[in-house]
Amino acid sequence: xxxxxxxxxxxxxxxxxxxxxxxxxxxxxxxxxxxxxxxxxxxxxxxxxxxxxxxxxxxxxxxxxxxxxxxxxxxxxxxxxxxxxxxxxxxxxxxxxxxxxxxxxxxxxxxxxxxxxxxxxxxxxxxxxxxxxxxxxxxxxxxxxxxxxxxxxxxxxxxxxxxxxxxxxxxxxxxxxxxxxxxxxxxxxxxxxxxxxxxxxxxxxxxxxxxxxxxxxxxxxxxxxxxxxxxxxxxxxxxxxxxxxxxxxxxxxxxxxxxxxxxxxxxxxxxxxxxxxxxxxxxxxxxxxxxxxxxx
Length: 296
Fold this sequence. Notes:
single chain, alpha/beta, globular, two-stranded antiparallel ribbon
């Protein structure tokens, strides 16, 4: 990725990228062993770029392993997001995460099985979490299916305390929504006032074709700029065009024009390599270069 930084253009306000990058190092394609992921995360949150780092994302099934790896850490030293396979599992996932002395549960990311009707998703999740002792400071995201349930679920989330999660890629080409599908999802969420996070496939700041796989990959800055456009009343074609833009200088310019308020809508994205987004944002002139000095 190359870009020309406009003369005199300094870094954007720090709030624009605060806790923007959730640490999904244990997920594909990185798949870092959990012990190494924990050690690396603890370095990230004390590094120069710590302000950009969100929680460590761990599957519910690996919480017992995490308990052993963090037994010697100080109380509440690890911000944690837990991915959950179904609404019914959410309460137990939160209880298990809260029982880890070193962990501060920050997020649950709840998947929705194919056979769960739209109208049952929010009620099932609400019931599962009803017995949770304390959800203070815990944000619950519901992964929005890429099927006919999408619009109805986003409408239901608007009347709930839960937020949305969009899957933007994966290990197969068909797991990547095209620009129009993603634009429609963003417009639905913004129109309903439902904040969201994104996960998978956002390996670079700007829209690109992966030279190794040939997959068409969304850029996390494209998605941020597209969210800003949607908040400003843009229609579908304009949002599609922003998501499709491949010129790094153009995308960086769109991001420079954003208010930090855009982050009330687009909360964060998962990345398996924190070094990549921090390095690319600095290369685009959007971050203070000093923030890259501790990159792993």
